[in-house]
């Protein structure tokens, strides 16, 4: 709610009582208050109201003190009632919104003043926050009784109350009724501009309601979108509601499409828009769009504080540009624990373990306390670089010295670190002794390690656990089959295959994204749905020829026997990242680096061909897979084949 709706009481000559607006701190206010009690100035209702306003609503508020001041008021006026109710309703403290409600009923029952249009929005907010529909409906009745049911501010809060209490039908009804009233009432139309704005607020409340519902029931997003599309006028809030709604519920593509649409219209994005869209941009590695957001913020004087700054650092590092992420990071005037964790995690993802650890000690020196998320970054840096001793000591430092309860992610990093470095027993022991229930991700990390180190016995054991835990997940079958294949146990391979067939286990659909001129192109395995599919296919053929010319032979025996974690039935089919690379090669000028984001881990065949493609076509190819970044250049990869 807007604070400007409260008119300041007329100021008094300073000879009567000290100007409270000059108080800087609550301590100062208390001194003034004490003086006023001593000199009996506090009995002036306007003076008391000013004291109350300061401790209830100023930046230095102290709500407990405010309540005391209010309770001692002889006969509080409407302004004071509104002040204390609003302060309580807007407080995030447990129980405060309920106290606001109780106070309001007291006001209605035994006060000598009537509630007005400034009272109801706060009261309705309190009902919404505590999901008290019954009380909310009573308040609705009072709104009608006091003749305030055409005040747009009260009405929009009424609608929001119904939305928040989950009764969309009533909300919708009220919404429709009030929209029509705004359009048809003669008196009302006169104040057209203001009414239109009131209408936009109402629309926003409704769209927001459907978005909220959409996070519970997916179908409701359609309703939100439909309503949004039919809005006669949209404000920046309308756009933000949709973009953040999509992004927060994993509908990243929709979030980006919405943002692109907004860019073309006449409503300008603001701070909230940028914060909302950046995670979606990061998700697809849409660097161009991300750069646009950064430039837009700088050009339009949008403050890049620690929150927006962290989102930008995250965007640049997830879009493959760790250097730019570091640049933004260094220029931030204030860095909080999230900012530090973001850059450390980013460096880890890019395989720059030593830098990640350097930044970690810089963080500690700068006096910002690392959070448990920071340690996930640190441990994954160790894991990507095979720094076993360092990882072990960070983990035990975190548990013993700092006292963090390790989360499943911390254990995941440790199992990955130990397992890949060949300490299989230690990794298994860690899983078995975890105080929390291990999930499939952790077991898969160990299974992957068993495969790398050829420990069939443990591999079989782990695969069994996984098959019980997630019976329809292809990962464990694939890993087990590959393990048998590499030891030449064809019979066992055939058994696993048969089992997969019988249980109708399908592999994950692989998917890759590449951004060109701000547009995101999506490719699936063996995808020919793209409008330039023909060109892409001849490019793929050319790549295959070039690879053959320099002597690359996909080991066909391996291709046929080895399974990947994703669908690829025959050696002739292409994984999505290869299709994306072919597309990138066609559409960009020579030497342009290519950035591809993939939803699964890159397979060995794609990894080794990417190295060669980077050499043949003299391109830097950056691939972000589910786990980390691979920077392919001059025929080798930044991961040094340790992934
Ligand atoms: Zn592949
Ligand atoms: Zn690599």
Question: How would you describe this structure to a colleague?
Answer:
This protein is mainly α. Among the domains are: 195-326; 335-405, no CATH class; 428-502, Serine Threonine Protein Phosphatase 5, Tetratricopeptide repeat (Alpha Horseshoe), CATH 1.25.40; 511-637, no CATH class. The chain is built from 32 helices and 6 strands. It has helices at 26-38, 45-57, 63-71, 78-90, 96-110, 119-129, 133-145, 152-164, 168-184, 186-190, 192-214, 220-229, 236-248, 252-264, 271-284, 287-299, 306-318, 322-331, 337-349, 353-365, 372-385, 388-402, 408-420, 424-432, 440-452, 456-469, 474-486, 490-502, 533-549, 556-561, 576-587, 604-616, and strands at 511-516, 519-524, 594-598, 621-624, 629-633, 636-637. Helix 32 (604-616) links the parallel strand 3 (594-598) and strand 4. Helix 17 (306-318) runs antiparallel to helix 18 (322-331). The radius of gyration is 31 Å and the shape is elongated. It binds zinc ion (ZN) (2 copies). Residues 564, 575, 603, 605-606 line the site of one zinc ion (ZN). Residues 607, 630, 637, 639, 643 line the site of one zinc ion (ZN).
């Amino acid at each position: 709610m807007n604070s400007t709706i409260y008119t300041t009481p007329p100021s008094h000559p300073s000879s009567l009582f000290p100007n409270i607006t000059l108080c800087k701190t609550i301590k100062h206010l208390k001194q003034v208050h004490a003086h006023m009690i001593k000199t009996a100035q506090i009995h002036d209702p306007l003076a008391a109201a000013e004291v109350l306003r300061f401790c209830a609503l100023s930046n230095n508020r102290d709500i407990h003190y405010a309540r005391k001041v209010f309770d001692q008021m002889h006969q509080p006026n409407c302004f004071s009632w509104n002040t204390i109710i609003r302060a309580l309703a807007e407080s995030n403290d447990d129980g405060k919104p309920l106290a606001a409600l109780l106070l309001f009923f007291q006001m209605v029952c035994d006060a000598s003043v009537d509630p007005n249009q400034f009272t109801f929005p706060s009261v309705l907010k309190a009902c919404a926050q505590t999901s008290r529909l019954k009380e909310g409906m009573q308040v609705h009745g009072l709104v009608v009784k006091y003749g305030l049911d055409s005040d747009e501010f009260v009405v929009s809060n009424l609608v929001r109350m119904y939305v928040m209490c989950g009764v969309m039908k009533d909300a919708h009804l009220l919404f429709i009724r009030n929209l029509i009233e705004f359009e048809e009432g003669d008196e009302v139309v006169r104040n057209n501009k203001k009414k239109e704005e009131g209408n936009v607020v109402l629309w926003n409340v409704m769209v927001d309601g459907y978005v909220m519902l959409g996070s519970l029931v997916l179908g409701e997003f359609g309703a939100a979108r439909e309503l949004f599309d039919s809005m006669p006028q949209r404000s920046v809030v309308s756009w933000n509601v949709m973009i953040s709604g999509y992004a927060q519920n994993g509908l990243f593509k929709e979030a980006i499409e919405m943002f692109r649409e907004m860019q073309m219209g006449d409503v300008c994005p603001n701070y909230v828009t940028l914060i909302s869209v950046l995670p979606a941009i990061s998700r697809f590695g849409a660097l161009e769009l991300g750069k646009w957001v950064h430039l837009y913020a700088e050009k339009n004087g949008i403050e890049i504080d620690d929150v927006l700054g962290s989102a930008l650092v995250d965007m640049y590092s997830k879009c493959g540009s760790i250097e730019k992420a570091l640049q933004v990071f260094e220029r931030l005037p204030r860095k909080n624990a999230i900012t530090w964790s973001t850059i450390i995690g980013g460096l880890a993802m890019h395989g720059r373990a030593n830098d990640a650890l350097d930044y970690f000690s810089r963080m500690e020196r700068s006096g910002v306390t690392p959070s448990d998320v920071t340690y996930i970054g640190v441990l994954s840096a160790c894991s990507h670089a095979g720094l076993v001793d360092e990882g072990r000591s960070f983990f035990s430092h975190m548990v013993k010295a700092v006292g963090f309860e390790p989360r499943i992610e911390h254990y995941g990093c440790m199992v990955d670190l130990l397992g890949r470095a060949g300490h299989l027993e230690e990794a298994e022991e860690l899983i078995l002794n975890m105080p929390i229930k291990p999930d499939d991700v952790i077991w898969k990390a160990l299974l992957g390690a068993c495969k790398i180190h050829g420990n069939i016995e443990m591999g079989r054991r782990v695969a069994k656990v996984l098959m019980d835990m997630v019976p329809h997940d292809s990962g464990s079958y694939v890993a087990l089959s590959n393990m048998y294949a590499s030891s030449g146990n064809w019979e066992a391979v055939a058994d696993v295959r048969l089992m997969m067939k019988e249980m109708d286990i399908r592999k994950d659909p692989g998917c890759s994204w590449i951004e060109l001129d701000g547009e995101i192109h999506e490719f699936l395995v063996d995808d020919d749905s793209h409008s330039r599919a023909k060109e892409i296919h001849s490019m793929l053929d050319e790549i295959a020829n070039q690879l053959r010319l320099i002597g690359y032979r996909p080991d066909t025996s391996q291709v046929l026997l080895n399974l990947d974690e994703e669908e690829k039935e025959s050696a002739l089919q292409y994984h999505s990242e290869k299709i994306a690379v072919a597309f990138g090669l066609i559409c960009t000028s020579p030497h342009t680096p290519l950035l591809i984001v993939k939803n699964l881990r890159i397979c060995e065949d794609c990894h080794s061909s990417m190295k060669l493609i980077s050499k043949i076509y003299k391109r830097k190819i950056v691939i972000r897979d589910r786990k980390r970044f691979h920077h392919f250049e001059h025929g080798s990869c930044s991961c040094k084949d340790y992934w």
